[in-house]
Amino acid sequence: MAETPAPAPAPAAAAPAAAALKKGALVRLNAKAYAGSLEAAASDGAPPAYVVEGPGEILALKGEYAQLRWRRPVPDVWLRLDQLEPWSEA
Question: What is this structure's pTM?
């Protein structure tokens, strides 16, 4: 039998950032990653400022999505991990 080539490994560009995000982490939305996404198309034109400024807390992780709670009286949201970045006060 002829050997079949091994499949190429999946790109791991988002893996380091996603691995750093875990339950309880403070995050903010990366506006560039969010723009043009399916989530952006299903929402208002521009995300609210508090989402981009942060911090939001990760409540749960499921697959490539995170449930976020903001420090405001607004509903929790689910966003893809590759659209999030760690929050810092600087």
Answer: 0.72
